[in-house]
Amino acid sequence: MKSSAPPQTYRVKSFGCQMNVYDGERMAELLAQRGITPAPEGEEADLVVLNTCHIREKAAEKVYSDIGRLVKAGREAGKEPLIAVAGCVAQAEGEEIMARAPAVSMVVGPQAYHRLPEMLDRAVKGERSTDTDMPPIAKFDSLPARRKSAPSAFLTVQEGCDKFCTYCVVPYTRGAEISRPFRDLVAEADKLVAAGAREITLLGQNVNAWSGEDDKGRTVGLGGLIRRLAGIDGLARIRYTTSHPADMNEDLIAAHGEVDKLMPYLHLPVQSGNDRVLKAMNRSHTAESYLRLLDRFRAARPDIALSGDFIVGFPGETDAEFADTLKLVDAVGYAQAYSFKYSPRPGTPAATMDGQIAPQVMDERLQRLQAALNRDQHAFNQASVGKRCAVLVERTGKLPGQWLGKSPWLQSVWFEGDAALGDLVEVELVEAGPNSLAGRLLASVPA
After folding, report:
1. Which of 93, 133, 324, 414 has the fewest CB atoms in 10 Å of its CB?
2. pLDDT at 185
3. Which residues are CB-neighbours of 245 under 8 A, at least 6 positions away?
4. At 57, is the pLDDT very low, low, confident or very high (cuts 50, 70, 90)?
5. Which pTM does this prediction carry?
């Protein structure tokens, strides 16, 4: 590659999970520290970072399509952008990306993106580089301080996964489970609140696997961390995602009933309602043990909203086994949920299993599952009408004077009135749709 002028503008495009959103924000902060500014809307950037996700089907091919579009748009604009590919696709297919896409200057994995500025220096000189090393959590010590935050912010507390579900690439792209130190998380949370965050969502591939030593040297789990963060003045709300049933403990369950700032919402993936399928997936729970776990959370916090993940069409899944998933959905009554068709990931055990399901069968099952999940989500929203609750104002609406925010149960709520970004306001929920609710502004909630 030929040398080029140092980039003046950047754009980070993040795909996939909330952890990728967090990583994208941190890469943007690294670039801003270099004096590079976000590209104005509608203008091509000098540097584009594609922060990729490997969970979705044909993720790698979509990366190459994005690269092609960037090259074409750059030529039409009279500039050749520097392109970096980051994230899980970069980790899984780094050398392949370099071979197939000459326009890419940098490939950096999710544990190495703190070295992006050094790679950029080489790219400006015309050198291409790949960094997919996976040192344990080293990147966090190299990231800049948090200086500006949205009202709702993400904080990665744990990375990696040791569960090795047979359909999943995360253990290969994010590495083994590792927890960030307690003191570092408290310090970053303090900085986020000082920078404007009113709500913090704690992130991890298995966030409830987090553990560390608290201020007094005691070993604590996620519940202990939540209790400490709840003491931060100005922090109004705490959430966490994504959890694994195997890592739940009594202290975290109890925190839902004891910590006012911990929101009444739990995302706990189950994936299937059939025990044989769960065993084939290498999930450590059964349908019954999962339901008993939810009962414990409801006992601690009766108004808790439940969310989950589902995969339909896992290899070998029969019609009767899929029907068990529908029975589980009926038993839980999810407020929200995410559902996907199984798609094979190279290198995972499920990709070579017998009994791969025909696409049309998966399509039909997914439609039936989503119909049930949408029914329950709408019912949960309908049951919320008439409630008064606090809403955190996160952005403006489409119409003048309209605001959008989240209820304690993570429902999208819109309302009109005198408010500002970051306000916590009391709203009466007056009308429910399938995906959001209308509210009537009552008053501001005291800080």
Report:
1. 133
2. 96
3. 268, 270, 283, 284, 285, 289, 290, 293
4. low
5. 0.82
